[in-house]
Amino acid sequence: MTVIANLFALGGVVMWPLLGFSVLVTALFLERGLFWWRLLRHQGTIVQIFLRAYPQDEGEANGDAIAHLAQHTDLPLPRIFLAALQLPEATPEEFRLGLERAAQAELPGLSRFSTIFGTVIGVAPLLGLLGTILGLIDALASVQLGDASGAAARNVTLGIGEALVSTAVGMVVAIYTLLFANGFQGLYRRQRAIIQDYGGRLELLYRQRYRRQFPVDQPLADSVTDQIPLSSTRPPARDRPSTQPPFSR
Fold first, then answer.
1. Where would I find the H helices in the chain?
2. Structural domain boundaries in the chain
3. To 10 degrees, what angle do helices 15-53 and 150-213 make?
4. Contact status, residue 160 vs residue 136, Cβ threshold 8 Å
5. Mean pLDDT for the stretch of residues 143-153
């Protein structure tokens, strides 16, 4: 406790906002860590169970699969799937647009607090530098003109050393924030790839089911000539040029 009090005394007034930044980012790290832990632990299993049950014929099994998915709306992928599946009588193109719209709506939640982390990373070193400058001003202000004694020089040196404490603390806060923020950014990029993967699988399954429910009839021939067999379009034998060699005399 005494060490912390000494650091605050040496760092000056900028130590208080640095302390606030460190407490803030620690609380946000705990919230983000709990969020990603729950997401990575449960979401993959839930989505895989649904994708295995969805290709079955419409009926009780399919209703149970969607009902199971609806029990986990606290996770991003189940919300994305349900938003598209709840579109009434959607064509495959409309279903794809519904998936894309729902996925775009979930992305800000996955990168939550990233702006705050970036602000702390940029501002914390500047606050530390500001504290150092203020400390240097105080240290140099204590030196009087013509006073070149060893005691005065020693006091200036000690003042400069104490002024650098705030810079060191600001760098520590920025590095601490940067490490965790980069880790969460990596999880965010990985989750975007997972959303695209599972969303593409569901879209393929939906297209297959749509084709089974609404089979496309064979298109009619465009003209009468399209219905004529290929063999009947060949010219008669007498009209075709002879390919045999002429009789030799």
1. 2-11, 15-53, 60-70, 76-85, 92-110, 114-141, 150-213
2. 18-133+165-213
3. 20
4. yes
5. 58
